[in-house]
Automatic annotation (TrEMBL):
GO aspect biological process, one term: phosphoenolpyruvate-dependent sugar phosphotransferase system
Signal peptide: none
Family per record: Belongs to the PEP-utilizing enzyme family.
Domain HPr: 37-130
Source organism per UniProt: hydrothermal vent metagenome
Protein's name according to its UniProt entry: Phosphoenolpyruvate-protein phosphotransferase of PTS system / Fructose-specific phosphocarrier protein HPr / PTS system, fructose-specific IIA component
């Protein structure tokens, strides 16, 4: 009889796990005897709570430090290096927790995690309720909340699944590995989209679960326990991510839950959907989706918006099955038993919407020219090589803001790696503006040590890094110079508050070029206008800069002294104060001025910006077509 290798391996793994855990506990006890814990309090300011995606990023950075990292809330302390345990705190808006680090890199970890947390809260914008349009129908109306806008006309069907078993199943360990590989592959294929981080977050969640689970039964138990902790909280929508992971692991274990769809067009009704099921829907004849229990900020909702599937949150039990329904998610309604006039109206709206969408897409490579014949250049804000390629595909005429932080991840990039990445982006465009490294404040990197600051947003960040980390800035500029050969490149310094700061940074850059014997006559130098003091110094800056780019996001928050994601205080980016500041710059500037903040793609602001004299707008790649189309009607 042959030995049971799989069983022996499982016993070995269990013994190894127990032994490793015991050794870790002994080491932890020894370390705690000789090191002092450091703590700080962090408050959740995002309306979405401290949910899976930011938690995954936070835990990933925590794991990079050689020290213990824990989070304490309501008397419960958890390991902050594990996504599932940190998520189990169910931290909601205005909750304050204590972050504690202890060990060799405790100080560095505390500072980096604090600044990362600030950035995560700032970036995690609230999903705003979409404004509903007013459309009158004769049929019975079911109101709901909009997920993704559109018009759908088709019979409604209920969510149905079928369980299928396969013989070619994997062992539990291999099933976990295959699921992790699948999530990584899905992340890479979606890297250009807003949905990419969802798959990366699910991968981090599964990695954390893998540390304590050695069988399907233990994984199911752990997921049930973690899901129960999230019930009836702001983070309950993330339970679907746990279920999604479990489903994918089961599939590789030979138990596949298949969704059943008809061959004809349909509107799908379900309580909720798993994030991974949206990709399956895209391959069917789905016209629309109505979900009963999802949330506007759930990963399922985010993926529905990214896919463009007309969708609504409403009471699906009120919708008759197998009968034609109109789903109008512009108005936020489902029309039950629609009249013929309702169908004609919906068909007309659908035709207009599709034509408008197709028109904008087809003309995305055309210039944006106003009704008065003025050409407004539309550039893109990009953060890495994939987003630069997407910008090219979407019709960008150049890059108005290249955020160089994409190269600076958990490991410091080499000169060659930076040069290669910059060169790949430069090859796609003739007009490119590179923003020098902007870390500090709300952006943390483990190898850039910035002392803990009481107000990081007003501390060492942006151009001030030339003073504190000259070696890193020198290498970055060296890489830009090497990659720019044969190209006209603009280099922009962020967070400049005085003429002296700019001249010192430019002199630093020129010294780098001289040190490596590089001709930089092809390089222009300018500033990103974010600090209000610059508004009073435009005439002086005219003497030294080659261009200006206005970062309206930070400029607005500094003008009003209100952080953009503050839970209680709100700032109106369309305030007359903002436009008065812009007018000051545009009127006094004798060098080219562009805008690269969110205001540049705000359809309510574009005509005002053009009337002020702005001729270059830089927006996110996905907003290029819409921005160009808006300009054509100004």
């Amino acid at each position: 009889m042959l030995p049971d290798f799989d069983n022996n391996l499982s016993i070995t793994k269990i013994c190894y796990t127990l032994l490793t855990k015991k050794i870790k506990n002994i080491m932890k006890l020894f370390k705690n005897l000789f090191s002092k814990p450091l703590s700080t309090k962090l408050t959740v300011t995002s309306s979405n709570g401290f949910h899976l995606r930011p938690v995954a990023k936070f835990s990933a950075l925590a794991k990079s430090f050689k020290c213990d990292v824990s989070a304490l809330f309501n008397g419960k302390s958890v390991d902050a290096k594990k996504v599932n345990t940190l998520l189990s705190l169910s931290l909601e808006k205005q909750d304050t927790f204590t972050l504690t680090t202890q060990g060799k890199e405790a100080q560095k970890a505390l500072e980096s995690l604090q600044t990362l947390f600030g950035r995560l809260m700032k970036e995690d914008m609230e999903i705003r309720e979409t404004t509903k349009e007013t459309t009158t129908y004769k049929g019975k109306i079911l109101e709901g909340n909009i997920i993704a806008k559109g018009i759908a006309i088709a019979p409604a069907i209920a969510y149905q699944t079928q369980t299928v078993t396969h013989d070619n199943k994997l062992t539990f360990d291999k099933a976990l590995t295959k699921t992790l590989d699948d999530l990584e592959a899905t992340y890479m294929s979606h890297k250009n989209g807003t949905d990419a981080e969802i798959y990366l977050a699910q991968k981090e969640l599964l990695l954390a679960l893998n540390e304590t689970c050695n069988s399907l039964e233990s994984l199911e138990t752990q997921i049930t326990q973690e899901s129960n902790k999230l019930k009836n909280t702001k983070l309950s929508a993330k339970i679907a991510d746990y279920q999604d992971i479990l489903k994918q692991v089961k599939t590789h274990l030979g138990v596949e839950i298949k969704l059943l769809f008809p061959e004809h067009p349909f509107i799908l009704l379900a309580n909720d959907l798993l994030p991974s099921e949206i990709a399956l829907l895209e391959e069917t004849k789905v016209q629309g989706v109505v979900l009963k229990e999802t949330a506007a900020n759930s990963h399922t909702a985010i993926l529905l918006r990214a896919s463009g599937i007309t969708s609504l949150i409403a009471d699906t039990s009120q919708i008759p099955l197998a009968k034609e329904v109109i789903l109008d998610s512009f108005a936020g309604v489902a029309v039950l038993s629609p009249h013929e006039t309702d169908k004609k109206k919906a068909q007309q709206l659908q035709k207009q919407y599709n034509a408008k969408k197709a028109h904008s897409a087809s003309k995305r490579f055309d210039k944006a020219v106003t009704t008065q014949g003025q050409h407004i250049k539309i550039f893109a804000n990009v953060g890495d090589v994939p987003s630069a390629k997407l910008a090219k595909e979407e019709g960008a005429e150049g890059i108005g803001l290249l955020r160089s932080e994409f190269l600076f991840k958990s490991v410091k990039p080499t000169l060659q790696a930076q040069t290669n990445a910059f060169r790949e982006i430069f090859d796609n465009f003739d007009d490119i503006t590179v923003r020098t490294l902007d870390v500090g404040g709300d952006k943390a990197l483990p190898y850039i040590n910035i002392p803990l600051e009481s107000n990081p947003f007003l501390g060492v960040r942006g151009v001030r890094l030339f003073r504190t980390h000259p070696e890193i800035m020198e290498e970055q500029l060296h890489a830009v110079f090497l990659a720019s050969k044969g190209k006209k490149i603009k280099i922009m310094f962020p967070m400049v508050s005085s003429v002296e700061e700019f001249t010192k940074a430019k002199s630093f850059a020129q010294n780098v070029a001289q040190k490596y014997n590089i001709d930089i006559s092809n390089i222009d130098f300018g500033i990103m206008i974010e600090v209000p003091s610059v508004l009073f110094l435009i005439e002086a800056f005219n003497e030294v800069v080659d261009f200006y780019s206005i970062g309206t996001n930070d400029l607005t928050q500094y003008l009003f002294a209100v952080e953009r994601t503050h839970p209680l205080l709100k700032v109106d980016e369309l305030s007359p104060v903002v436009f008065s500041a812009l007018k000051t710059v545009i009127t006094k500037a004798t060098k080219p001025v562009s805008i690269c903040g969110e205001l540049a793609s705000n359809t309510k602001a574009i005509d005002k910006l053009i009337n002020l004299g702005i001729t270059i707008l830089s927006v996110s790649p996905k907003r290029i077509a819409q921005t160009k189309e808006t300009i054509r009607h100004v």
